[in-house]
Amino acid sequence: MSPAPSASEQAYLRVKEMILEGDLPAGDMITEGQVSEELSVSRTPIREAFLRLEAEGWLKLFPKRGALVVPIQPNEMEQVFEARQLIETHAVRVVAQDEALTEALSRALADVIEQMTRALADDDVEAFSSLDTEFHLTIVLAAQNDILSDVYRGLRERLRRMTTRSVWHDQSRMERIVADHTELTRIIADRDPDGYSARLLEHMIAAHSTPAQRVFRFPAGGVLPGSPG
């Protein structure tokens, strides 16, 4: 059995979850005392958690004043989409060079889609959200590049903070995600990295942005600002 996480590790995980879920909104000033009281833990592990979260870019510490939950930057969503597109497409390109890898990945993704379909039928929003993450991470892990996999996990966390909770309570959007994943899996089976790249961007924009963001922040044609083509 693995040892139980330390008080500092538990505090770090809980505060980070509060940031990602929006319970500690971007742009807010928070204090060790405030969070310590809310989580019913002493200030020492909270202080250690704050230092770790500052190193990761989630908080900005101000002596004797507290910590600022780092605001979301104006173009952050576009940048996350672009980075995810590059990493996932690279993974698909690597896998496409090997027929056996392609078949194994296709089977694994089909299994995730089957679980997502059950979660959708059961209206299990939490499971559905987790499986959505698993689907895309499975693709990245298939390339067997640990550094890119770690970078990708960080991108998913950034996107999670920007995605409104209402996304996961929209039945039609969840159905669209399942349909998109099915199509992306078919493209992978066809060993078509370029087709995957274009379709992935369309999927991310539809799944993780609001109608207003799609109109004013993302251009038509599946090309991000500054991207070639």
Radius of gyration: 19 Å
Low-confidence stretches: 225-229
Give the end-to-end Cα distance, rounded to a whole number of Å: 52 Å
What are the secondary-structure elements, in order, as H or E?
A: HEHHEEHHHHHHH
Structural class: mainly alpha
Q: Can you count the beta strands?
A: 3
Side-by-side strand order of the widest sheet: 1-3-2
Q: Bin the strand percentage.
A: under 5%
> Main sheet?
3 strands, antiparallel
Number of helices: 10
Mean pLDDT over the full residue set: 88
Shape: elongated
Share of helical residues: 55-70%
List the helices and strands and how they pair.
Layout: H1 7-21, E1 29-30, H2 32-39, H3 43-55, E2 59-62, E3 66-69, H4 76-96, H5 99-121, H6 125-141, H7 146-162, H8 171-189, H9 193-208, H10 211-216
Antiparallel strand pairs: 1-3, 2-3
Helix pairs in contact: 1-3, 2-3, 4-6, 4-7, 4-9, 5-6, 5-8, 6-7, 8-9
Can you describe what's shown?
With 229 residues, the protein is mainly α. It contains ten helices and three strands; from the N terminus they run αβααββααααααα. Strands 1-3-2 form a three-stranded antiparallel β-sheet. Helix 4 (76-96) packs across helix 6 (125-141), helix 4 (76-96) packs antiparallel against helix 7 and helix 5 (99-121) packs antiparallel against helix 8. The longest helix is centred in the middle third of the chain and has 23 residues, at 99-121. The radius of gyration is 19 Å and the shape is elongated. The model is unreliable at 225-229 (pLDDT under 50).
